[in-house]
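Morning!

This is the sequence you dropped in the shared folder:
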Amino acid sequence: MSAADKLPPRTWRTGQSKHVMTSKQHRAYTVFMHPAVFLPSWVMLGILFAFQDWMNFRRWGYHVSAKTVFESWGVEYLVLGILCWLMWRFLHPYIVRASVVDMVTWILLLSIAFGIVKEMIWVLFFPKVPADRPYMPYWQRFEFHWKANCIVNMFIFWCAFFLFRGLNYYQRFREKETAAARLEVQLANARLAALRMQLNPHFLFNAMNSISSLMRTDVNAADTMLEQLSSLLRITLERGSVQLIPLREEMEFIEVYLSMQDQRYSGRVRRDIFIDSELHDALVPAMILQPIVENAYAHGLSKLERDGELLIEAHRQSSHVNFVITNSGLGLHPAPGGSSNGHGVGLANVRSRLHLHYGENCSFNISQIDPTHVTVAIGFPFQLSDKAEIGMTRYGAQ
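The structure's back. Tokens below.
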């Protein structure tokens, strides 16, 4: 009787393997199923059984060569591994689609053929096994081993069969999960793009109104403001559809925008900007500050004849970036017919974009610190730009 025939009942255990999804050949191959991984794994399993078998022989007092035991088990499981891999490689589509009827008909016949082929190959490599019996011709040895291992071979086949089906179900689950995540990202990007498209015409409309009003009183100022608007549009076009930009680029935009407002409110507003030096390369949503500053002018500073105040601050607090924009004006109590609490298109846009970018890990608050001062505070996670660099503003304020 062969070494394989004298083993106690075998136990099988399948482990979880990490899958790497690919888009080639219309099916996802796993790392585990690569021949360079799959076949050595089967050989190692055979060696483990060989070691167990060899230890049993020693305990029972049999004198069997360790080389014969390890070679027979190693080759047996190498052949099993090759047959299982070929089954995966060429019959994978049929395995994953097989119905119960298929399983009890042609797949059952395939499992029998699987065992026959395996024994035919293995017997060819070991003509002297079993060593405790007289020499037997090839087909007699095949019959002997086939009867001894028929059930075990079918059991291995069906274990491999259901393992392959399980891998396919897992891959399909991962593909659906990945597709759902991709759709969610695409939806978020589409909503962000829509918000950006909403913001740009809103900003452009207000800027053109300001230029139009200056044309009647100060043509030179209106001309300068038009040039500055051209710079802002150029900056916007260069950014394209990029959603997150370094803070230094956002401040370029704000500087030019504030210069435009200086043309309209010359001498009426004092503005101060304080930005932590470590935040120049921090990533922020594009045009996140401009709607807040525009709102400060539209609902606060434009109502004052003199001594207007605008303060823009940016600080890092632990893992978050905090912006505080404070302006003087009429507080949060609008005049009759005005917008309520400054919750116009611009601020609603900022709140929506923050939520899309950062979910619940962001903050947006409007508060009145005294009857004539309003502050807007926003916060979101600190992220650094991959293109950290120190440079001067490309578009100087005029």
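Headline: The radius of gyration is 37 Å.

More detail when I'm at my desk.
O.
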